[in-house]
Specification:
Layout: H1 3-13, E1 18-28, E2 31-37, E3 49-55, E4 61-67, E5 76-82, H2 90-93, E6 101-109, E7 122-128, H3 133-138, H4 142-147, E8 150-157, H5 164-174, H6 180-183, E9 187-193, H7 204-209, H8 212-217, E10 227-233, H9 235-247, E11 261-265
Parallel strand pairs: 7-8, 7-10, 8-9, 10-11
Antiparallel strand pairs: 1-2, 1-6, 2-5, 3-4, 3-6
The chain binds flavin-adenine dinucleotide and adenosine-2'-5'-diphosphate.
Flavin-adenine dinucleotide (FAD) binds next to strand 4, strand 5, helix 2 and strand 11.
């Protein structure tokens, strides 16, 4: 055997959970999305995350948590990713092309699932940055609209370009043959920017506390009787939104104990 054969064999052996990249789209110099083949056996609940990654230079898998952005009925899996310039994984992952392989550990977990909330009338999805990924899954799942009369997607980024992935997704949903009719009139999309002027501006926390979002959308103020929420952003964002939701009387739930809202980190750290 040549050393070449050995390398090829060991890399195949070391990639038992390999999936093939089917498409890649770059949204900004800091954001991209990609789709991969879905393992036949993979079942997940919309909103959950899995560990994905690449083989590291040391021959060990380099894995990170990623929310599955596609809905549970989709044939493929979609992910929406940051590009951290010096990030161990994303400095490499940002260069993947269709046909490349990634590692995907097929063990989905997470708290941003419909089962972790008590029944309610309205579902508030609150995200900053890549925190929209789990909601990209839930917004495309018919079950979300079966369970709630209204679904409100609040997404905040610094600039309009960073909102584009979510905007295109929501616009596509309205024309979707499978889910378009369910979505019409039920899904309210409330994108805001904080460091660039746009149609709507301001932090999610401020737009909730001031009541501006309720006024703009013609919805009643959040109450524990009718409203449920899912939160996904930086640690600071999650911390501050929790305080606002608690001020409306909502309590945090979990898979084991459904309540009025659930939270998950969009990433660990202070942001870049
Ligand atoms: P890391 O060493 O992991 O991160 C370096 C630094 O970059 C971090 O300390 C942080 O300051 C910053 N950073 C990392 N991720 C982000 C981010 N998403 N947005 C802004 N700043 C960030 N990342 C995604 O891009 N998409 C997802 O769907 C996603 N889902 C996640 C779900 C969970 C439950 C958790 C815990 C994390 C998730 N992440 C997601 C973050 C992801 O796991 C990695 O941190 C990210 O891919 C960067 O990896 P890295 O090795 O390049 O850098
Ligand atoms: P701002 O520009 O006012 O800081 P980042 O790019 O830093 O991860 O932030 C993503 C978005 O989340 C930005 O629009 C930012 O607003 C907002 N944000 C950051 N921290 C908080 C927080 N603690 N509460 C509410 N919004 C936040």
């Amino acid at each position: 055997q040549t050393p070449m054969d050995q390398t090829a064999k060991s890399s195949v052996r070391a990639l038992p959970d390999a999936q093939t990249v089917t498409s890649v789209r770059h949204w900004t110099d800091r954001l991209f999305s990609f789709r991969v083949t879905r393992p036949r056996s993979l079942r997940f609940r919309s909103g959950e995350f899995v560990m994905i990654g690449l083989m590291g230079d040391n021959g060990k898998p380099l894995l990170r948590a990623y929310s599955i952005a596609s809905p549970s009925w989709d044939d493929e899996l979609e992910f929406y990713s940051i590009k951290v310039p010096d990030g161990p994984l994303t400095s490499k992952l940002q260069h993947i092309q269709p046909g490349a392989q990634i590692i995907l550990r097929p063990k989905p977990v997470g708290t941003l699932v419909l089962d972790a909330l008590l029944p309610g009338k309205r579902l508030w999805l609150l995200a900053t940055g890549t925190g929209i990924a789990p909601f990209a899954s839930l917004m495309r799942d018919p079950e979300t609209y079966e369970k709630y009369q209204q679904v409100i997607m609040m997404h905040t980024c610094r600039t309009m370009a960073e909102l584009e992935y979510g905007r295109e997704l929501v616009e596509g949903l309205r024309d979707d043959p499978l889910i378009g009719e369910m979505v019409a009139g039920k899904l309210h999309y409330y994108p805001t920017t904080t460091r660039e002027d746009s149609a709507r501006t301001g932090r999610i926390t401020d737009n909730l506390s001031s009541g501006r979002v309720f006024e703009d959308l013609g919805l009643p103020k959040i109450t524990p009787a009718d409203d449920r929420a899912m939160v996904c952003g930086s640690l600071a964002f999650n911390h501050d939104v929790k305080a606002v939701l608690e001020s409306f009387g909502l309590n945090e739930g979990a898979n084991s104990e459904p309540r009025e809202y659930v939270v998950e980190k969009a990433f660990v750290g202070d942001g870049i």
